[in-house]
Amino acid sequence: MIVPIKTLKVDTLTIHVYNSRKDMGIAAYELYKKHVRELMVRQKIVRAIFAAAHSQDDFLKALAEDTEIDFTRITGFHMDEYMGLGKDASQNFGNFLRKAIFSRKPFHEVNYIQSDAIDISAECKRYEGLLRQAPLDIVSMGIGENGHIAFNDPHEARFDEEAWIRQTSLDNICRQQQVNDGEFGTLSDVPETALTLTIPALMSCKKVICIVPTGRKAQAVRQTLCGPVSVACPASVLRTHSDATLFLDKEAAELILTI
């Protein structure tokens, strides 16, 4: 078991800080495994949502190497997808997760958002129907540089909307982050719209594991934990969930280590 260098609680959110990004990812995997195995005692299938982002790399690597979880009892979803990219594009989030985890484990089922859908309303209706077939059990996610979760950027995020998936326009901070992550060469290459699971959909999950490395996220982490719970920083809603845990490396935590 990897021991955090600091543990704290803000409202109902538990925060663990680790000495390295690798330690953070492995610790997140260990808690994820514990949650999934406990859920499997009570139910046949676990319904899990995954984030497609390099912040998740260490966690997903550990999960892909797991030998204890019965993946044949997990149905997978992903939380967002660019619109307008070809489905074979390397930046396509479904492809990211297929390579990182979905093709590496024998999932019961994997449900992909169709990035090339012509009828956006119909695609939202289809995917929402899949999401609502049964309760959602666990989500692994990150926090964006602008405080977003999934693609719920501050200018469009809502805590109270009825829909579980919708089309959204991406703000320039969010789009620039994709360039910073090395996924696109320039800002103009990044799609301007996406489909995203909404905050109510994410918060409906029984368990939330949030994984946030690097100093580029330090300001967003401080806003998440020290500011008001507000759509100005969508990730602040994590402080209201009954079973959410935030995993940070020391660089991401550098502005909150004194609280």
Automatic annotation (TrEMBL):
InterPro entries: Glc/Gal-6P_isomerase, Glucosamine6P_isomerase, NagB/RpiA_transferase-like. GO terms for cellular component: cytoplasm. It holds the Pfam family Glucosamine_iso. It is an enzyme of class 3 (hydrolase). GO terms for biological process: carbohydrate metabolic process; glucosamine catabolic process; N-acetylglucosamine catabolic process; N-acetylneuraminate catabolic process. Its EC number is 3.5.99.6. Residues 28-244 form the Glucosamine/galactosamine-6-phosphate isomerase domain. Keywords: Hydrolase, Isomerase. One of its GO terms (molecular function) is identical protein binding. This is 6-phosphogluconolactonase/Glucosamine-6-phosphate isomerase/deaminase. The gene is nagB_2.
